[in-house]
Amino acid sequence: METRNQRGAAVVEFAVVLPLLLVILFGIVEFGLLFYNKQVLTNASREGARAGIAYKSEAEITKIVEDYCRGTQSSSRLIRFDTDVDPVVTVTGVMGSYGDDLTVDVSYDYTFLVPNFFGSGPNLELTARTVMKMESVAGP
Questions:
Q1: Domain segments of the chain: what residues?
Q2: What is the pTM of this model?
Q3: Long-range pairs for 54-62 at CB < 8 Å and ≥24 separation?
Q4: Continuous segment of H or E residues that includes residue 48
Q5: Nearest residue to 67 via CA among 58, 78, 54
Q6: Cα 59 to Cα 44: distance, rounded to the nearest angstrom
Q7: C-alpha–C-alpha distance, residues 5 and 131, integer Å
């Protein structure tokens, strides 16, 4: 008689625990994507600064950063869920003299995946900054 009363208990317990498990699962995916995009921006700013210390112009540095974020023709390095908006690149200290700081700032408005399914979700501004010293010899 006791087993008949317990048959639906597992289904009820699963129904109670399932939403919590889904929130944890989607949270792991969401923050994994967020940290991946942050790393792409950090690498892009580093590539731009590395090119800039070899006496590249501001336009060349910006193009290098945007090209890094765009990736190859078949896929973008940045994972985007809304529009294909390029990150904003700010370069200071371009064409300075030996030992001066060159700063490359990259910012991007990240749109979260799960809230975007239900319309407009919140955005988070991801930023990356790289500071390098200008080199002594002008580049090619």
A1: 2-133
A2: 0.81
A3: 54/135, 54/138, 54/139, 55/95, 55/134, 55/135, 55/138, 55/139, 56/94, 56/139, 57/94, 57/95, 58/91, 58/94, 61/89, 61/91, 61/94, 61/104, 62/89, 62/91
A4: helix 9-52
A5: 78
A6: 15
A7: 68
Angle value at C-alpha 67, between 62 and 82, nearest 5 degrees: 100
**Position of tokens 């064409």?**
95
**Model confidence pLDDT, tens digit, residues 93-132:** 888 888 899 999 999 998 888 776 666 667 889 999 999 9
Amino acid at 30: E
How many percent of the chain have pLDDT more than 90?
Answer: 51
